[in-house]
Write a structure and sequence with these properties.
single chain; 186 residues; alpha+beta; VC0467-like; 10-stranded mixed β-sheet; AlgH-like; UPF0301 protein SPDO_23260
Length: 186
């Protein structure tokens, strides 16, 4: 029996020519992937004109002492739903450990803790997510479109948003400047 390979804790990089403009140079942190499907949070693009203070005000949380920060485009599904990817030094009521590399929280307690200065030491906030039904991501991985790479939490917290796509390819030993937009056929 063949063992399934799941991508939890890895990053998906959109290949040039993926065919969906929402995913041009996308970087997705895969937070859960199993036989039932997958969920990932986009970390390769920011939502123009929207910052953390705006989001906190919308959900009626005092901005406290936290600096304003960019909001990431997490994906095309439920674009008004917020997620926090963060270090494992904080945990809330719905926090999920992602392969021991980082954590995912999706409730307001994470935002409250960040605003109060009592949250995780490292974090980023995203609106929306990318989701795949059972077997869908596995099928997509057999076609041109995505490259999965393993990297550490530095991809999330120590790399500028605009540099994450290139960092991912470099981690895989690939120079993204040499990539074409079409896959070959043998």
């Amino acid at each position: 029996m063949e063992t399934a390979t799941f991508l939890t804790g890895q990053f998906l990089l959109a290949m040039p020519g993926i065919g969906d403009p929402r995913f041009d140079q996308a970087v997705i942190a895969v937070c859960a992937h199993d036989e039932n499907g997958a969920i990932g949070i986009g970390i390769g693009a920011q939502v123009a004109g929207l910052g953390l203070h705006d989001v906190l005000e919308q959900v009626k949380i005092d901005t406290g002492a936290v600096d304003d920060a960019p909001i990431h485009f997490g994906g095309p599904v439920e674009t008004r739903r917020g997620f926090v990817l963060h270090s494992s030094d904080w945990s809330g009521q719905d926090t999920i450990d992602v392969a021991g590399k980082w954590c995912l929280s999706g409730t307001l307690d994470a935002l409250r803790a960040i605003a109060e200065g009592k949250g995780p030491s490292q974090w980023l906030v995203a609106l929306g997510y990318a989701g795949w039904s059972a077997g869908q991501l596995d099928a997509e991985m057999t076609r041109h479109g995505w490259l999965n790479v393993s990297d550490d939490a530095g991809m999330l917290f120590d790399t500028a948003t605009a540099d994450r796509w290139t960092r991912g390819f470099n981690a895989a030993g690939i120079d993204p400047r040499l990539l074409g937009i079409e896959s070959g056929r043998a």
